[in-house]
Structures are given as structure tokens and as C-alpha cells.
Design brief:
The structure holds two protein chains of two kinds. By secondary structure, chain A is α+β, with helices and mostly antiparallel strands. Chain A contains 16 helices and ten strands. Chain B is globular. The chains are: A alpha+beta, B alpha+beta. The complex binds iron/sulfur cluster (SF4).
């Protein structure tokens, strides 16, 4: 590989804009060498076809600590999500992963999310009411973007949303790239494991019909069926550690990413008031506008890491076995080769095969949930606050730094 | 238009159901895609093409 080494994360000119380097990289150096905050080096992909192809190839897996993969975070600063740390006891690849995924994934089908929609609408209305009562300007992230997904995922998991300040700290630590010390991360991780473990024990004693209770009941039933030899072919259920890891994973995944996305979506749509006004006039565009916001978001974070267990050729270049590849979904989402007018938002774009949720067997499990929440938020805001606007110039929005996932730390709005 | 789905590939993301709810559904037991209509009428074909394009695992096949 030739060409310069790009240093990640790449700088940007304004908080919603993509790094200028993406365009050049896609054109001149789509298979680039990148230096990560850890000092390790990786291969950095920015073109749509390459990212899509590599992420969908089952031979290339999410690295764990067992692999000799490039690390994102400097020694000690990385949370479990950045290091792929082995304390997360879930089958991460192959058939066992597929089985886990189907066990959990059936709770996130579109049908189930549609059933949750009226509840989400009520919650959103209540949060908007409270924001309006408190008066403008308001921070949309604190008033709506953050609490909504937390309430929804807590409800699904059957855990009290009142603990949300603690979740938020645990979640940040889990996703840390450079924000915390190793000591802080270990403490937060230990607390979260203990919390979830106690929660699972409590559910075991007193099931309550939520996702975790149901998984526990099924796992126990599977165990008994297996022991009695009644149904020898029956799949084994989830162990206690797997249940804890599932609860943690869903809590964190349901937390930060959607909260960030709500803020970024609203900021992007308000950045050009013409977009907002078009949606106020034609709310039937909500579904495609949400997809376009997902595509257009330049602040998704680091991108996905893949470890190559064998040689692969990308764009005619050999990337040798043992390499770590960082796939930039947001750079791919702006690739002219895949999207006509990639640098413009088209609120009615269809189809919109953006890569924001990943692709292939590991693509985001909660995407129907995220999409439903984003649609509900946008619909509600358009209906309730058609005069919504950003209360500060876009350049003054601040990005969250030092975490694996990117967002805006505040989204000040008025109406 | 003829449609088929590959259950083995499907990861249950439901993007197809959101794009074309009259044509795709997901099984309650595991979230895997099911086809409600393998020969969709003209007015649904755009939505179906969109579903096939956005499927993260390329599990939907559209022929002719
Ligand atoms: S979009 Fe693809 S992966 Fe998702 S449910 Fe439909 S067929 Fe399965």
C-alpha cells in the first residue's frame, strides 16, 4: 500500500460536515493506511463497494482480544466495545452467533416494533410537552434524544429507567476510546456486570413478561428438555453469563447510538430550514427522510473493524492475512459511485442502501427499533413544533469526543 | 416479477418489512423473513426493489 498515512479520527471543518479527506481518499487511495489512536496501524476503506463487500464477507470477523488485531484505543483507555474484550460472553461468530442472534432478534421484528409505536408516541409527546413547558431555548438532546431511547430499551428489558444516569456513565465507559482511564473503565464495567447479574437473578425469581424474563424462562425450559432427553435435538438456552452479556449489550446499544442519532438528525434537518419546511408540508416523507439522515450522518464514529484471517485483494491490492481493516460506513455513504448527488440530502431518496447499520450477518439487530424511534420523533416534532430551529449557529455545535460512537453533546433549539 | 428469499442469509433486520410491508413479514420465532407474496403486483414492485436493495444480507432475489 502506498500513499500517506491517515490519522484517525479525521478532523472536520464544522460539526456536521464530513472530513475533507474522505473525498480524496475515495478517489485516490481507497485502500489507505491509517494510524489509530492506539498507535497501531490498520487499513482504512472509504469506498461503498469495498466497505459493503468486506463487511458482508463471513470470513472476516469482528476482532476479539484473542486476535492479534490492531487496537483502536490506547492501552488502558479502551472500553469493552473498543477492544472487543473477552469479558463480553457472547458467541461472536459463526453458527453459535447466528443462534443467539435469532433468539434475541425475534424481539426486534418490525411487527413488535410497530406494536410498541403507540407507547413511543406517548412518551415522545410527554417529553416534548415537558420541553415546551420549560421554555426555549432547550437542549433537544437532554430533553428528548437521550431519555426516549433509554426509556424504550429499559421498558423492553424490564429495568428501571430511573437508573439512567448510572447507565449513561457505564455506557460511555464501555464505548470509550480515549475518554477514561483503565481504572475507571474496569470499575464501570464491574458495576454494570454486577447490576445486570442482580437484575437477571431478580427476574429469575419473579419473571415479568419482559425480554429478559422471557429469555430466562426459555433458557430454563431448554435446559430441562435437554436433561430429560425429551428433545435431544433442542438448542441449548442461554447461560447466566450470556444473559448478562445480552442485557448489557442491548442496554448500551439501545442507549447511545439512537440518542446521538436523534440529535444529529434534527440538527441536520434544521441546518437547512428548507428541508424542515418541506417535511412540515409533506410528512409522508418522514420514512425516507430518516433514512437519508442516517446516510448523511458524518459522525457515526470510528467505523467497523474487521480482522483478516486470510489474504484478500481489494481494488487490485493485496491486503495480507493478519491485517485489521477499518470500514468507514459514513465515508461509504457519501460515495458518488453508489449514490447520485451523494453530497446533497435528498429527503425522498429511494432506494437508499446506506451502510449505517452495517451489512451482512452482523448488521445491527436493533435497526427496526432505531428506525421506529427516529420516525416517531420526527413525526411528533414536525406536528408539534413546526417552527423549530437551531438556537445557535451550526458551527457552534460541539461533537462528543473520545468515544467509539459519535454525536453532538448538545443540540440547542428554539421554536 | 418473481421473488425469492434465502432464509439462511437473512439476519432478521426487517428492512424489507419496513420498505414493503404487504410483501414481506418476519417469523415470530426467530425474526427470519417470510414472503407474503412471491409475485407482487405492478404497483408494489418499486417498494420490492427498494426492499431488495436495502437488505443488509442480500437475501432477497428479484428475477425478471
Ligand atoms: S431485510 Fe434482508 S436480512 Fe432483513 S429481514 Fe428482510 S430479508 Fe432478512
Amino acid at each position: 500500500m502506498t500513499g500517506p498515512v491517515v490519522r484517525l479520527p479525521l478532523p472536520t471543518e464544522d460539526p456536521l460536515a464530513p472530513p475533507a479527506a474522505w473525498e480524496t481518499l475515495r478517489r485516490q487511495c481507497p485502500v489507505a493506511r491509517a494510524a489509530l489512536p492506539s498507535g497501531d496501524s490498520a487499513v482504512y476503506l472509504t469506498r461503498y463497494d469495498h466497505v459493503r463487500q468486506l463487511l458482508a464477507d463471513p470470513r472476516f470477523v469482528r476482532p476479539t482480544e484473542r486476535d492479534d488485531a490492531a487496537r483502536i484505543a490506547p492501552e488502558g483507555a479502551g472500553g469493552a466495545a473498543a477492544t472487543g474484550s473477552g469479558t463480553v460472553a457472547l458467541p461472536d461468530r459463526g453458527e453459535p452467533h447466528q443462534r443467539w442472534r435469532r433468539q434475541v432478534g425475534r424481539y426486534f421484528t418490525v411487527k413488535r416494533m410497530t406494536a410498541l409505536r403507540p407507547g413511543m408516541v406517548r412518551l415522545t409527546e410527554d417529553l416534548v410537552d415537558a420541553m415546551v413547558t420549560a421554555g426555549a431555548p432547550a437542549d433537544l438532546r437532554a430533553a428528548l434524544g437521550f431519555p426516549l431511547p433509554v426509556y424504550v430499551i429499559c421498558d423492553l428489558l424490564g429495568i428501571p429507567a430511573d437508573d439512567r444516569d448510572r447507565f449513561s456513565h457505564w455506557s460511555d465507559a464501555f464505548l470509550s476510546v480515549t475518554r477514561y482511564t483503565g481504572e475507571e473503565i474496569r470499575t464501570a464495567h464491574g458495576e454494570l456486570v454486577a447490576y445486570m447479574s442482580a437484575h437477571i437473578d431478580a427476574k429469575r425469581a419473579r419473571p415479568a413478561g419482559d425480554l429478559l424474563s422471557t429469555l430466562i424462562e426459555e433458557s430454563e425450559a431448554d435446559e430441562e428438555a435437554g436433561e430429560d432427553g425429551e428433545e435431544p435435538g433442542r438448542e441449548p438456552g442461554l447461560s447466566h453469563d450470556e444473559l448478562v452479556a445480552t442485557g448489557m449489550g442491548l442496554l448500551i446499544a439501545g442507549h447511545e447510538t439512537t440518542a446521538n442519532m436523534i440529535g444529529k438528525m434534527v440538527a441536520m434537518l434544521l441546518d437547512d430550514r428548507g428541508r424542515w419546511e418541506r417535511l412540515v408540508k409533506d410528512p409522508s416523507l418522514v420514512r425516507t427522510a430518516v433514512e437519508e439522515s442516517l446516510r448523511f450522518d458524518a459522525n457515526l464514529g470510528f467505523g467497523l473493524r474487521r480482522y483478516l484471517g486470510e489474504d484478500v485483494e481489494i481494488d487490485g491490492r493485496l491486503v495480507p492475512a493478519g491485517s485489521t481493516v477499518v470500514c468507514s460506513m459514513p465515508a461509504a455513504n457519501r460515495d458518488e459511485r453508489a449514490f447520485a448527488g451523494a453530497d446533497d440530502t435528498d429527503l425522498g431518496r429511494s432506494p437508499n442502501p446506506h451502510l449505517t447499520f452495517g451489512v451482512g450477518p452482523h448488521s445491527c439487530l436493533g435497526q427496526a427499533l432505531a428506525r421506529t424511534e427516529l420516525q416517531v420523533v420526527l413525526e411528533t416534532l414536525l406536528g408539534r413544533l413546526p417552527t423549530l430551529r437551531l438556537a445557535v449557529p451550526v458551527e457552534e455545535l460541539r461533537k462528543t469526543e473520545g468515544l467509539l460512537v459519535g454525536g453532538l453533546s448538545e443540540v440547542p433549539v428554539a421554536w | 416479477m418473481k421473488l425469492s428469499v434465502d432464509e439462511e442469509r437473512c439476519c432478521g433486520a426487517g428492512a424489507c418489512v419496513l420498505a414493503a410491508p404487504e410483501v414481506f413479514d418476519q417469523r415470530d420465532e426467530d425474526g427470519v423473513v417470510t414472503l407474503l407474496d412471491s409475485d407482487p403486483a405492478e404497483h408494489r414492485q418499486n417498494a420490492v426493489r427498494e426492499a431488495a436493495a436495502v437488505c443488509p444480507t442480500a437475501a432477497i432475489r428479484v428475477t425478471a
